[in-house]
Amino acid sequence: MIPAIGLVVGIIAGLVLHPTVPLWAQPYLPIAVVAALDAVFGGVRAVLDGIFDDKVFIVSFLSNVVVAAFIVFLGDQLGVGTQLSTGVVVVLGVRIFSNVASIRRHLFRA
Amino acid sequence: MTERAADTRGDAWRRLRRIGAPRLTKANVLVTVLAVTLGFALATQVQQTQEAGLESLTQPELLRVLDDVSQRSARLDAQLGELQRNRDALRSGVDTSAAALQQAQDQVDRLGILAGTVPATGPGIALTISDPGSKVTAVHLLDIVQELRNAGAEVIQVGGVRVVASTFFDDEGTTVYADNAPVERPLTILAIGDSATLSAAMSIPGGVVDSVSQRGGVATVSIRDHIEIRALHTLIPPRFATPVPAATATASPTP
């Protein structure tokens, strides 16, 4: 409950404060956000599966973000940044979809 | 099956509620911090994307934009050239048509004076012939008109009649007719032209003034700087004569 409120608070703060993304973070922030979303949906699914663990969630959240950003960074260095970003987004998107499907089955049996 | 399913479903909601219940553990606080960060990053990124300008575009995208812009610019340039040409054409067209209109107006004025369809003004003479014996006839009037024309009169009025190419004089009894209109005595003749030449032509020995006085009349010539001839000739469209077509006219001159 509190994390959900925190999410809303964060969104509102972002809208109100209207910060500028630093140039060095611009390629990584979108991927990091998608990775974090994946971790969040994974966490919700774990809750419904009854196997949620705070530590695991925190670690997976942070590692997701770091790994996603690192992949993009690596891709930029190798000259395939755009393609790798697309790949990461596709993989994370698929995971988010499967997690959401699992959540839906738990909550609505459908 | 349905019962078990309902159970599981209830379990899921219960778990969600339990986990959602406010607990103040270290992990929960940390998760909340992460959530706040995620929300903040999400909102920031969304806004960044919405207001992203050219700097967020990749090189191929920039190239495409550049290409679009230059194509558009070339198109607009071509359009500009065309419109400028149109404008110039229209402007010169206006000039040409204005000149043509002016020329046509001049022509109309000239022809109108020649044909007697417009009033005319200018320097000239007024000739008054007092002729108690009514001895001055159409023949003399014709002589006077010839004499005036010879002296360069451009517009002539006899009595109330504008003298044009088709004007004729006629006698009936003691009344003189010009174009079938009676000319009242004393006869007044107005002529526009070089007034000195005209009056000299009237007054030469054996000229108009002389011949009138021989018949017992008195002809008075008065030179005027400003004569207005308002009598008009009504044009009657020719019934028989038509212009010879231009090509034939130049090809075969009249024998």
SSE blueprint:
The complex is a heterodimer of chains A (110) and B (255).
Chain A: H1 2-17, H2 29-49, H3 54-78, H4 81-108
Chain B: H1 2-20, H2 26-50, H3 59-115, E1 120-130, H4 138-150, E2 155-158, E3 161-163, E4 169-172, E5 175-178, E6 181-183, E7 187-192, H5 195-203, H6 208-214, E8 218-229, H7 246-251
Antiparallel strand pairs in B: 1-7, 1-8, 2-3, 2-7, 4-5, 5-6
Structure description:
The complex is a heterodimer of chains A (110) and B (255). By secondary structure, chain A is mainly α. Chain A has four helices and no strands. Chain A has one domain. Chain A has helices spanning 2-17, 29-49, 54-78, 81-108. In chain A, helix 2 runs antiparallel to helix 3 (54-78), helix 2 (29-49) packs parallel to helix 4 and helix 3 (54-78) runs antiparallel to helix 4 (81-108). Chain A starts with a helix and ends with a helix. With 255 residues, chain B is of the alpha+beta class. Among the domains of chain B are: 57-115; 120-229, Protein of unknown function DUF881 (Alpha-Beta Plaits), CATH 3.30.70.1880. Chain B is built from seven helices and eight strands, in the order H-H-H-E-H-E-E-E-E-E-E-H-H-E-H. Chain B is rod-shaped.
